[in-house]
Amino acid sequence: MSRDPAPHLADVLAEIQARMGEQIDRGQVADYIPELAATDPNQFGISLVLADGTQLSAGDCATPFSIQSISKVFGLAIALGRLGDQLWSRVRREPSGLAFNSILQLEYENGIPRNPFVNAGAIVTTDAALGNRQPRDYLAELLTFIRTAAGDEQIHINQAVARSEAKTGHRNLALAHFLKSQGNLVNAPDLVLGAYFHQCAIAMTVAQLARSGRFLSNLQRLISPDRVRRINALMLTCGHYDGSGEFAFRVGLPGKSGVGGGILAIAPGRASIAVWSPGLNAQGNSKLGTEALEMLARRTGWSIFG
Amino acid sequence: MSRDPAPHLADVLAEIQARMGEQIDRGQVADYIPELAATDPNQFGISLVLADGTQLSAGDCATPFSIQSISKVFGLAIALGRLGDQLWSRVRREPSGLAFNSILQLEYENGIPRNPFVNAGAIVTTDAALGNRQPRDYLAELLTFIRTAAGDEQIHINQAVARSEAKTGHRNLALAHFLKSQGNLVNAPDLVLGAYFHQCAIAMTVAQLARSGRFLSNLQRLISPDRVRRINALMLTCGHYDGSGEFAFRVGLPGKSGVGGGILAIAPGRASIAVWSPGLNAQGNSKLGTEALEMLARRTGWSIFG
Amino acid sequence: MSRDPAPHLADVLAEIQARMGEQIDRGQVADYIPELAATDPNQFGISLVLADGTQLSAGDCATPFSIQSISKVFGLAIALGRLGDQLWSRVRREPSGLAFNSILQLEYENGIPRNPFVNAGAIVTTDAALGNRQPRDYLAELLTFIRTAAGDEQIHINQAVARSEAKTGHRNLALAHFLKSQGNLVNAPDLVLGAYFHQCAIAMTVAQLARSGRFLSNLQRLISPDRVRRINALMLTCGHYDGSGEFAFRVGLPGKSGVGGGILAIAPGRASIAVWSPGLNAQGNSKLGTEALEMLARRTGWSIFG
Amino acid sequence: MSRDPAPHLADVLAEIQARMGEQIDRGQVADYIPELAATDPNQFGISLVLADGTQLSAGDCATPFSIQSISKVFGLAIALGRLGDQLWSRVRREPSGLAFNSILQLEYENGIPRNPFVNAGAIVTTDAALGNRQPRDYLAELLTFIRTAAGDEQIHINQAVARSEAKTGHRNLALAHFLKSQGNLVNAPDLVLGAYFHQCAIAMTVAQLARSGRFLSNLQRLISPDRVRRINALMLTCGHYDGSGEFAFRVGLPGKSGVGGGILAIAPGRASIAVWSPGLNAQGNSKLGTEALEMLARRTGWSIFG
What we know:
Four copies of one chain form a homotetramer.
Chain A: H1 6-22, E1 28-29, H2 34-37, E2 45-50, E3 55-59, E4 65-66, H3 71-83, H4 104-108, H5 119-130, H6 135-150, E5 156-157, H7 159-167, H8 170-181, H9 189-200, E6 202-204, H10 206-212, H11 225-238, H12 244-250, E7 255-257, E8 262-267, E9 271-276, E10 279-280, H13 287-300
Antiparallel strand pairs in A: 1-10, 2-3, 2-9, 4-6, 5-6, 7-8, 8-9
Helix pairs in contact in A: 1-13, 3-5, 5-8, 5-9, 6-9, 6-10, 7-9, 8-9, 11-12
């Protein structure tokens, strides 16, 4: 399986786009807030940035979508920058074996979430990144980080999405109050969730998202290589909730999905890849996005597993 | 982080050996059967085979030890060879979030084990590999496979260990009868466990174990590259029980541990690595073995995560 | 709500029998062994013995049926006779909140079953009652106890049922091996289950069953009043698996059900009552049997709750 | 075991008081809010009202204490009065097998609490009793109900306790938001918990509490006898959290405990009994209160189990 040069890759992306266009079963669009429910399920986009800086794209690459849980990767980078390894006394690094918003695990394990990518773990991570600042200061830092990573100032929070999340966020409020009762939340639940809901409401295009992941492929230096490796390891084992094992098995790349239908995937040293298609599979990950990445990994031989 | 040439690697192994020799806390030797309990915790060995066929070793490399759960990797290769993807209707590919011998997950998920490396999943895999054969025929195939992989006829089953496992194997019998009651076991529980206990009782030296893993590093062709990638993905996400996330985070290589203190780790395309030290950490994986692999990955830059 | 004299009671039983005869939905007959699966679901019988020794019956009262889990009450009486309160170090006295054959609770609570009426607890109780005797000796004592209680020598074990139970008993074998692995089984799992399966295979008519419960209504003295009270308390809180709360709520009498469709219910100081109808409800308790007891308790005012 | 006349009972109470005064291990006083933490653990009081209206008391019977979860019994009576059996579509009637504030069960069973006495079930019950009223209107009805039951206008809410509960109530907020996310809460979580925290903060003396339970012993008619029986059944199976089976086994009376150290127990047709001692046992129920009731039941023969 030879390494594919850029010209060939353009063909691969075109082929992927064509194949995804033919798919009848496109999964279920998330419908818990009106802003996501209204998304057209026929959209599909893929974009990647190579080690030489080339960016290739196909499909709906200029439409901003809600990155949702993909934002947890950037929030984790910031929290690690502020706390370093102290963060790991408040959140573990193990796959959960349960749904993304499970509260059961918390009770069983005394308020220490399994990893920073399940909702409870992301809430703790946001609380840690927040420190004693106001949410707006944390969000400003987060946006600056993402804009720097993407090399693009035109990345914003969709305020309507943030408001809707807050309105329907009782499950996350349950998690936050539970964490608070267990002593694993410094700030007030409302304050932390305010920051969390805004973070999830960041909107990006797949082209922007692909560029923003270059630092995780070591194509750009924003954080230490050691930390990059560890974030990638977490994405591989925990990045797709209870579908993480399946994603590793089929795609073989570290990746983080969001309920908005986006996935950021990393081919270390080779490429940063973003896909987007709003319909989700049973595990809550983009159905076509996963299939597109599986096809890409197969054609390029980029799997980290040989 | 440059790629290390073989001469340098010998120094790294020597350094690792020296460092491990100094460690005071060497973990707890498994004591559920007398044969394991009697093992001297001061032993440590490491061995690796490179892409060019060179093998480097340090420490106790000629002492056979019980490979225990590492045998699940070879059993899985054989089961996949016989059933192909049909195996995945009987066992999933997700990390478990629970202890290696948990029966709880089985009840919660109707008798479909989470992955082939938790005990329940390995029992199902053994049942599948067994088919309608006698245990001795399956074990003969398994030994042939391992001997071919290692290029060494001197690999045997330790019958005393197999007998002891059978005597104290009530937890595994519980799992097997539970699977049988759920309709996920074709053969009689006793028959499957007979095969399973003998498989776990295979004894190898670290030097042999390192050679036997070459097919997973694509240094030797025994099974298809696609299957290799998938077994590696499973080892990365599920190979160290409820310490799999931690191992991926710290070491960054696919690996499979056994309660005898051995670990087989794979650096795809680069090396097959085996370590052995009998003392276990809280998750039931070799304490010094894990630390040695973490050191090795750091010094060589072999992490698959960049 | 006046206390009903015996003549009136005959009318009540006749009315109950008539009502039950009209019921279209008669529940599902247990089908895990052929002997139970073959039972005619149209059968219904009810019998009760009053404080003055009068016995009233209606319906199919001369047909022997498999008492199954109702036997756990007699087994418990024998175990308490041999061990006294020491039994409670091996099994608790709390409702389980889970299905009757759940293994999950065992793992969560380190091998101490919740109560003597869930299967795991009954297996531990049988092991305790067995002591270092052979199963046949325990079974002889058990039959003697039941025959004495019923005042009837014609009560036997249905050997065909016992054999069928043993053949399909993988779930119970799983429980027994699990208990053994946790150190809460003295005898070998096979030996204990041999006794357990035979105990469950005892066959009685409702008339015999009603008489055999007199000692629990204090109409006959076989064990101390203090022990009677405690067995009744356990039947009330745990006698109908995860339908115990519902049974207490609707019927208001201590009772123990069996998967053969029988229920033994106790009105302390007033009556010992047995019903039988083979069809089961969703919780695995006799559907018509429960309804008949609810009707009886309402008409007689025998509820222990006022 | 003869039925004890009133004169004898005074001696029994005196003896119980004396015995409880000698106890060294008095359990642990709840310390999650300052108002409870400050309670003197040496206090003990017992009071009972008989069928003829006689009231007998011993010990600290004039000190008001926080009735906490005992208030759930009165809240349930009001909710049943408003909704009747429709309430049972939102909350079940089974013991939980888990701690009183467990959130795990909710996730496992889709937001339907196991019974009205675990916290989640009481929150749902309060929401149902609240309807579309303001909390103050519900609380006024509740106080009127309790004052009528006790025949005493001097029963009030301790506002300091209510405020403290609200301040530290993150666990209950987690439950309420979880229930809301599952669609099993009509009102806003804050509103329901406002009512709930005030309800728990009702203060009574044991003398008042004993009188307020007369309607459950059928010594006073406030609700239908059928409903009385059912509330008693729920208290018996679920009134002491995960110690309910133990309480039924040892005491043999329907009862409801509160974390303030009070217990209300019912001897149907005979007596309404209240005890209070602030120290709690491992299950969160009054340690001396339970022992006193066990002694009382033994001496009077009031157990409902014969």
